[in-house]
Amino acid sequence: MSKRVWLLLTAMTLWATGWTPGQVAHQHHPPESTSAYIKALEDPGRNEWQKPEDVVGHLELKPGETVADIGAGSGYFTVRLARAVGLGGKVYAVDIDQGMLNYIEQRAGQERLTNIQTVLADPNNPKLPASSVDLIFICDTLHHISGREKYYPLLARSVKPGGRFVDIDFHKRPLPIGPPVEMKIAKSAMIDEAQPAGFHLVKEFDFLPYQYFLVFQR
């Protein structure tokens, strides 16, 4: 798949945030610019249903751990994860859009977070070092990745022994926010997809109104 198509798919991640003008019907248009995409991702209204502080709290991260935030976008979760692991920890902010990574670097500087490292990934390769992370975190992104049967083993390769993989994504049913139903991955299908790579479901949280929140261990 061409880089141009994948850049468009990255822009389409806007849909996965559930942002629409006036929070009305789903918009079948990508954002006009990186700045518009960032504005949508950081819309305060997102906090009401994404519950980012609760999400990070349920991850039970320890100081000094290393996390990979795949599909980091504007750094919405990246900065929260960075605070959770502390100065002795590290967060890889992984995205295929250099503009987004530039924004995260600027944001990290403004917020004095020195434990964030940006990673410019390929659409089909997160480009993470082997056995480098304690937790892989993916939110509202996995359904944009094609060839996931080859992507999961790359994730597994990057996780330390006993490490975890967390996926948060929209339930595959009509919802007032999020992408069209045909773009979504059903929870049961996602669980089945991850198993051949050695990821086994160990925990599930159900406090998010529109998304499943799954914790795997390898």
Compact summary:
The protein has 218 residues and is of the alpha/beta class. It contains 8 helices and 7 strands, in the order ααααβαβαββαβαββ. Strand 1 (66-70), helix 5 (78-85) and strand 2 (90-95) form a beta-alpha-beta unit.
- Which secondary-structure class do the elements indicate? alpha/beta
Low-confidence blocks of residues: 1-30
Number of helices: 8
Major β-sheet annotation: 7 strands, mixed
Q: Would you identify the CATH architecture? A: 3-Layer(aba) Sandwich
Strand content: 15-25%
Strand ordering within the main sheet = 3-2-1-4-5-7-6
> Which word captures the global form?
globular
Give the H and E element order. Answer: HHHHEHEHEEHEHEE
State the oligomer.
single chain
Give the C-alpha Rg.
16 Å
* Annotated CATH homologous superfamily: Vaccinia Virus protein VP39
Number of strands: 7
Whole-number total of structural domains: 1
Helix content: 25-40%
Mean pLDDT: 87
Which class in CATH terms?
Answer: Alpha Beta
**CATH fold type:** Rossmann fold
Terminal Cα separation, in Å? 29 Å
Description:
- There is one protein chain.
- The chain is an alpha/beta fold and 218 residues long.
- It has a single domain (3-217), classed as Rossmann fold, CATH 3.40.50.
- Helices cover 34% and strands 22% of the residues.
- It has eight helices and seven strands; from the N terminus they run H-H-H-H-E-H-E-H-E-E-H-E-H-E-E.
- The chain has helices at residues 3-16, 34-41, 46-50, 52-59, 78-85, 98-110, 148-158, 187-194; strands at residues 66-70, 90-95, 116-120, 133-139, 159-170, 200-205, 211-217.
- Strands 3-2-1-4-5-7-6 form a seven-stranded mixed sheet.
- Strand 4 (133-139), helix 7 (148-158) and strand 5 (159-170) form a beta-alpha-beta unit.
- The longest helix has 14 residues, at 3-16.
- The protein is globular.
- The two termini are 29 Å apart.
